[in-house]
């Protein structure tokens, strides 16, 4: 062997002796150190080593399972850029010295026991990435992270429930926020008002039931939104200013059941994921307001067979569709024509319905053609590519995705779905009153026209009269009601007629009344304070009104119009006569025909007038009460300060609502009957009470 090689080897063996050795339990590679399972003495040794050359110039430090990890023990490390600490809970207060890690860019502190965000984070002024996954953080409040340079925050598997107001004000360059696996129950867009750079928001596996788009400004820059694995049953996202640049949306693993007409109106959306959503129906017009959509997954929805041929708009961008593991018996021709890459493995295709055109599309459009199978009438599974021309004709089929016994609730918008499975037969509907109607292709609503509720419309324009649109919509895909009435219950027949044969499906619709109770919570001499337990869920807000009527035997009648968005579910009825019995009703009715949708009534007697003595006592009592209130308010001062942030948000919402409602009050009164338009409740509404518009 060449002696030159030997000397090289000797140099290598001796090299560690010239410098301090890599600490026990650690492996050193260049300027990076990785340590696992350090006992306390080993950790002390490490921190001592880090003080000396060359380890004082370490740029990356990875620690995991350190017995007693303490930030103060780590020396100042002027070159450290990456510091990842895993499963090493030590002090939760994190005492960081001011210039301990001046260059630190990436900090991970995962699987610790953090319950609150350490204040010391503020001293890390170069940080761009922070990962605090697998801790026990509950509050993402305004005091949590103040790092102006931060770009990426990962908080997976914590217990965060809500996002506080102004959190993002202190993170102006934040681009990515990952809240996978937390306890969020709603997504409120106004929480993101100051998140001006946010591009990616991941809310996977939370418990989100509701999306409140309560303001139109925030989230303008957002490109990716992941809402998979939540509890959403209804989604409606419309870009006004917010979501304008949304590019990719993941709604997988939510129980969506029905993809409604125009459910997303997002001009830039290109990628949409709807896997595993227990989906049964895709309505006509479902994707028409997504002009740039080019790739969609609706995999693993075994009940999905009902897919409207009018689901897509005229967009030519659509390119890739994955319908693996869906319930399609035949692939709708619209899909075959529209899509250039189709994935169909494990669908429930019927062999006799895989037409010759499908063979033509076969190997070109259908990417997984060689794995695609269908079922014969006898139940055998065959490969599509080996299929011989079928003898038996394709059986006509009527699709009724929600069965033949269905239940609707009074006031709801409801559709009884029934459609031909792709054949050219005509479809007829027979109403419970035995009227037969030939169904037309479903009309698509103009998505841009937003429905204003009747109350607001009449408030702004008292001459406004009626909505002339039909309440019932009969189409080749459904028998639909804007507002279900109790009288709509009965048997509906869906009949498909072709030259060959007639198919009939009889569907029973039951209509349940809601359980709404009206109570008089406080009764005085001239007023009654009313409250009720819930509101009707109304979608057709433009044609439904809510009023309170009070009548006594002397033909006295008063009507008060209320907003459907009455979130307090209460009203104080004033100007009544003392010691008199009134019948008071809460009524939802159709404005075009005055048809009652639902009413709940009580009879209530007002109190008799008090004697002079009693009213004197009353004044005394009121005086005492005022004094007490002053004392209580005084004591609660600090408490009120804490609530301040909450109130300012409420105020903001209220202001927004005021701007649409104004505070005017119209009184239209004739001699006997008077109608008052009462809109103070409108000033504070909650989106949870807001009927879907
Ligand atoms: C050391 O780091 C280099 C690059 O930084 C990497 O390619 C190499 O695999 C590392 N060696 C060890 C033993 O980890
Ligand atoms: C590391 O220690 C050496 C020797 O004491 C010193 O020359 C060097 O400046 C130190 N480096 C840093 C980044 O402190
Ligand atoms: C968050 O959800 C988990 C799992 O459902 C539950 O155990 C935990 O108590 C919740 N935490 C909070 C703060 O609600
Ligand atoms: C969408 O969410 C599902 C479920 O969480 C996940 O498996 C999938 O990878 C996500 N898709 C994208 C593009 O992130
Ligand atoms: C789609 O195209 C047809 C015919 O070209 C047209 O009648 C229809 O209005 C278009 N629909 C939309 C939503 O643009
Ligand atoms: C029967 O019902 C349909 C729709 O529900 C309605 O348009 C029609 O007027 C009704 N006919 C009679 C005779 O009641
Ligand atoms: C309201 O009235 C209903 C029946 O009319 C009664 O069952 C309920 O207990 C009352 N609620 C209150 C809060 O008084
Ligand atoms: C109550 O009655 C008085 C006098 O009749 C009237 O001025 C007032 O506007 C009424 N208030 C309401 C809310 O109807």
TrEMBL record:
Q: What Gene3D superfamilies is this protein classified in?
A: Ribonuclease Inhibitor
Q: Name one Pfam family in it.
A: LRR_8
PROSITE patterns named among the record's database cross-references = IG_LIKE, LRR, PROKAR_LIPOPROTEIN
Superkingdom in the source lineage: Eukaryota
Membrane spanning stretches: 620-640
Keyword Membrane applies: yes
Looking up InterPro entries in the UniProt record yields:
Ig-like_dom, Leu-rich_rpt, Leu-rich_rpt_typical-subtyp, LRR_dom_sf
Q: Which residues form the signal peptide?
A: 1-21
Domain Ig-like as annotated: residue spans: 401-504
The UniProt keyword set, sorted, is: Leucine-rich repeat, Membrane, Repeat, Signal, Transmembrane, Transmembrane helix
Q: What is the protein's name according to its record? A: Ig-like domain-containing protein
Q: What organism is this sequence from?
A: Caenorhabditis nigoni
Gene encoding it?
A: Cni-iglr-1
